[in-house]
Automatic annotation (TrEMBL):
Keywords: Heme, Iron, Metal-binding, Monooxygenase, Oxidoreductase. Belongs to the cytochrome P450 family. It comes from Streptacidiphilus alkalitolerans. SUPFAM superfamilies: Cytochrome P450. InterPro entries: Cyt_P450, Cyt_P450_B, Cyt_P450_CS, Cyt_P450_sf. This is Cytochrome P450. PANTHER family: CYTOCHROME P450 YJIB-RELATED (PTHR46696:SF1), P450, PUTATIVE (EUROFUNG)-RELATED (PTHR46696).
Length: 410
């Protein structure tokens, strides 16, 4: 499970409080650093842009730890990383199995299909921003909970036909499963609760099929073939609803925080110097919504140089949110928010065969949410200027737990 010559290694902070400082320290140390994850599990943490990019395309690295990771046999019940690491969906499949499963949902998230969703996303954003605009002078609101969360959960749940009575339960269930600070007992309970709600969704769609992705997934992919197993259906729903909801919530919340801390960029937008796409891409670069996605596994020894060799069977975690701050890629103020920079290269949506299917939709939602908010509320201000909001208690995802603002300052 780990290199026997290494007896001590840093523990990855499950609180997420120092996520960027932690990643920067590892990036400066080596192309990969052996760390301890909850479990405990030893894994090679990779935070350099070039190394992450190389490993995502490397056939010697597998996402399917059920098949390829020897350490799995030692994991206790209630392992905190199990919901993601053991999920049965194309998220973790390898090779042909991954390609076949991914094709089931890929067409829905093509650029053309996503663009057709624009009116629906815009209407939802208008409704939510109008509610913020109706608040009295001096009143506060939380951007994450009053705009970003309800917008993204509405869009993804509409796509998958999630009925109203299950939407909040599924959303809070995903939040709980991604909280890496939970102990094993509570992590197991959160996992069981989420899968129970997703099971309710499957049962509801079997009884009430409609024109939505969940109903489509219940059918065989081709005539004469078998339908997905329940385990794969549940894993796919967790992946698609969770990725379509949680990550975009973080993108929108981080974007608002960055713009209010750097209001000169709002002037640049008005002048036409930059566009909303520039803001979205720079937000993805500096605050990628996903940090460490556990886990991958080395199928062979992989020599990364600088004395670092990942051995066959070792676990690997890639710090996607760290890649955008790599000074090798962004030598000019890599930790500063600057939508005017020419290159905004990042790996916020991953890279290679597992590149995020929802990237086009996330960008669309981010652009619409930010443009609608600042168009209708030009005086919007932070409720606590100069203070960084509390971060999500997770090393898996990256973002703020909330962002209090004042729509109409007194």
């Amino acid at each position: 499970m780990s290199s026997p010559s290494i007896t001590r290694c840093p523990v990855l902070d499950p609180s997420g409080r120092a996520v960027h400082a932690e990643a920067a320290a590892m990036r400066a140390e080596a192309p990969a650093v052996l760390v301890e994850l909850p479990g405990p599990v030893l894994a090679w943490a990779v935070t350099r842009h070039s190394v992450i990019q190389a490993l995502t395309n490397d056939p010697r690295v597998s996402r399917d730890i059920r098949r390829h990771w020897e350490g799995l046999a030692e994991m206790p019940e209630g392992w905190a990383l199990a919901p993601l690491a053991l999920q049965q969906s194309f998220f973790n499949y390898y090779g042909d199995e991954h390609r076949k499963s991914r094709r089931r949902v890929a067409p829905t998230f093509s650029p053309r299909q996503v663009e057709r969703m624009r009116p629906q996303v815009q209407a939802t954003a208008d409704r939510l921003v109008e509610a913020l605009a109706a608040l009295p002078p001096g009143a506060t609101a939380d951007i994450r909970h009053d705009l970003a969360l309800p917008l993204t959960i509405t869009v993804i749940c509409d796509l998958f036909g999630v009925p109203d009575h299950l939407r909040r339960k599924v959303g809070t269930g995903i939040d709980a499963v991604l909280d890496s600070s939970l102990d094993q007992e509570h992590a197991l309970a959160a996992n069981n609760e989420l899968y129970a709600r997703l099971g309710e969704l499957l049962q509801y769609k079997r009884e009430n099929p409609a024109s939505d992705l969940t109903s489509d997934l219940l059918l065989p992919s081709e005539p004469g073939t078998e339908s997905m197993s329940d385990d794969e259906l549940l894993g796919t729903l967790f992946l698609m609803i969770g990725a379509g909801y949680e990550t975009t919530v973080n993108l929108i919340t981080s974007g608002v925080q960055a713009l209010l801390n750097h209001p000169e960029n709002l002037t640049r937008i008005q002048e036409g110097t930059i566009g909303w796409q520039d803001v979205v891409e720079e937000t993805l670069r500096i605050e990628g919504p996903v940090m460490h996605i556990p886990l991958r596994c080395a199928l062979e020894d992989i020599d990364l140089g600088e004395g670092v060799v990942i051995r066959k069977g070792d676990a690997i975690t890639l710090g996607f949110a760290a890649a955008g701050r790599d000074p090798e890629v962004h030598p000019q103020c890599p930790e500063g928010f600057d939508p005017t920079r020419a290159s905004k290269d990042h790996l916020a949506f991953g890279h290679g065969p597992h590149f995020c299917l929802g990237a086009h939709l996330a960008r669309l939602e981010g652009e619409i949410a930010l443009s609608t908010l600042f168009r209708h509320l030009p005086e919007l201000a932070l409720a606590h200027p100069g203070q960084e909001p509390a971060r999500l208690t997770s090393f898996i995802i990256n973002g703020f737990a909330g962002l209090e603002v004042i729509p109409h300052p007194v």
